[in-house]
Amino acid sequence: MIEFKEVSKTFATKDGNLNAVNDVNLTIEDGEIYGIVGYSGAGKSTLVRMLNGLETPTSGEIDINGAKMSTLSGKELREKRQKIGMIFQHFNLLWSRTVLQNVMFPLEVAGLSRSERRKKAAELVKLVGLEGRENAYPSELSGGQKQRVGVARALANDPEILISDEATSALDPQTTDEVLDLLLEINKRLNLSIVLITHEMHAIRKICDHVAVMEDGQVVEQGTVFNVFRNPKQTITKRFVNEEVDPASSDTNVVLDDLIQNYPNGLLIQLVFHGDQAKLPIVSEMIHQFPEIQVSIIEGSIHQTQEGAIGSLYLQLLGDETGLAGAQDLLKKMRVETEVIHHG
Amino acid sequence: MGNSSYFAFDQVDWNMMGSSTWETIWMTLVSMLFVAILGVLLGLLLFETSGSNSLAVRGLNWVIAILVNVFRSIPYIILIILLLPFTKNLVGTIIGPVAALPSLVISAAPFYARMVELAFHEIDRGVIEAAEAMGATKRQIIFKVLLPESMPALVSGATVTTISLIGYTAMAGAIGAGGLGNLAYQEGFQASNNTIVLVATVVIVVIVFAFQFIGDTLVRHIDKRTL
Ligand SMILES: Nc1ncnc2c1ncn2[C@@H]1O[C@H](COP(=O)(O)OP(=O)(O)OP(=O)(O)O)[C@@H](O)[C@H]1O
Ligand SMILES: [Mg+2]
């Protein structure tokens, strides 16, 4: 278990003090994937760099499985660091070493014998799916393959935690998904806690259990990914969630504006489905009960999170007032979250 | 004395030419050995002490940087003269290849130290930080990250330094250190034997080319950044 207790970090810069991290409290349970999302400069990197002592907190306390990080230094700190794997946006591989030699680096640091190193590194290369490329140099690999080497290297000393600082930000969407799948697989297989920093809500939704949203050094919202996606409270969270749930939202808005112009009397609503609701025939039930209402579907999407599906559907309903009110009642009865966008 | 004076090859004492060539190569290689060791140590010290928060460390960096810059700016021919008493104390003589070593090393080591420092600064900070995050000690970072990652730059810097050392040995030769510079000056210039000057020149050019070739080949072999 990782605990941040009232952690703050202030940098002294030429323009005065800068509060990069401000009074953060977080608990990360064993074996979960914890996402930290926020825009550039929010303090995400600074926060996780305090986990392995690359930065020291100005105040507050960080506990990792009972060990207070602030009390560690010298040899103890280095030994603890061996148990905290980290992967980076720019991979940070040694270009003078082959894939296998890169993976052996942390094992050399830990002082394993030559034969143990070879054996362990070969297993890890296999685990991340790079068998056959052991003797390639990083310059011969694609971005996704380089990050696989990064993952193998981070896992070399059987870490208690894996930190991923924007590890997919330099990759294309498909390769991002491959690396995320790999992280999820490792998390499941080794029951390894992962702290995943990102500015893409997609990565959070795809593999994280919990998420914390950071803004200006503070955690402004946290909870299970499912709950935060379903019911984002802060403006910044809503922005992140909308980017992800509804990437075409600007297109949708254009269409919605058009519809409002052309059918000023119509009802425009957004439905949000959770979990098994997404699989129920809610719309057809509504059409069935209120045949006099005209229904057009404007946009719909569905996304899978670790806890279940979240669907979103934009509908236009045309008809008389009693019909429209009845339809809305029905939706309420079926516990579908409904947001009225326009009611003429 | 016409241009044919350049081609009187029967006037050349080839034994002497051979031993002078060997002296030049010997002076270059032995001094380069010391320059490499001293340069890497100084460069590492400059690199490790730069950008520190501690006042003492910054002071140390400042002192080394000043020393390096001072010795780098002294013209070699003046440095030899300046170091004559020091050389005499150290090696017991001011004549011959061994006597050239102190001034050669002292003039080239700061030059190489700067290149070493630069090479270390060119390593991505993230890579060094990754090693730190894995729990590497300072020593491990030096031997497993800094040196191997900057090796191509260190070797090409060493090549450039070696070639300028060849030039310095010729100057040292003119004031009695031996080698091809000495031969060209005494047997060539003072005895008006143009052929000796020409042959000595050609041999020096060949030596320079050879070192350049070896250096380039080595760099190509160890540089894995672009394949
Ligand atoms: N060593 C440092 N010295 C001074 N200021 C720093 C230092 N490191 C970070 N900062 C500042 O702290 C703030 C938070 O930086 P941080 O790198 O943690 O942000 P981030 O959320 O990781 O951003 P990004 O998504 O761009 O990586 C920024 O304003 C940054 O300029
Ligand atoms: Mg960052």
Automatic annotation (TrEMBL), chain A:
SUPFAM superfamilies membership: ACT-like, P-loop containing nucleoside triphosphate hydrolases
Catalytic activity: ATP + H2O = ADP + phosphate + H(+)
Domain ABC transporter: 2-241
InterPro entries given in the database record: AAA+_ATPase, ABC_transporter-like_ATP-bd, ABC_transporter-like_CS, ACT-like_dom_sf, MetN_ABC, MetN_ABC_transporter-like, NIL_domain, P-loop_NTPase
GO biological process, one term: amino acid transport
Function: Part of the ABC transporter FtsEX involved in cellular division. Has ATPase activity. Essential for cell division and viability.
Stated name of the protein: Phosphate ABC transporter ATP-binding protein
Pfam families with a match to the protein in the record: ABC_tran (PF00005), NIL (PF09383)
Record's keyword annotation contains Nucleotide-binding: yes
Record keywords, A-Z: Amino-acid transport, ATP-binding, Cell membrane, Membrane, Nucleotide-binding, Translocase, Transport
GO cellular component terms, A-Z: plasma membrane
Lineage, top ranks: Bacteria, Bacillati, Bacillota, Bacilli, Lactobacillales
Family: Belongs to the ABC transporter superfamily.
GO molecular function: ATP binding; ATP hydrolysis activity
UniProtKB/TrEMBL annotation, chain B:
Protein name, UniProt field: ABC transporter permease
Keyword field contains Transmembrane: yes
Domain ABC transmembrane type-1: residue ranges: 21-215
Source organism superkingdom: Bacteria
Pfam families found in the cross-reference section: BPD_transp_1
Chief place where the protein resides: membrane
Membrane topology note: Multi-pass membrane protein
Similarity remark: Belongs to the binding-protein-dependent transport system permease family. CysTW subfamily.
Any single GO BP term: D-methionine transmembrane transport
Source organism (scientific name): Secundilactobacillus kimchicus JCM 15530
A cellular component term, taken from the record's GO annotations: plasma membrane
Record's subcellular location: Cell membrane
TM spans (from-to): 25-47, 59-84, 90-113, 153-175, 195-215
Alphabetic keyword roster: Cell membrane, Membrane, Transmembrane, Transmembrane helix, Transport
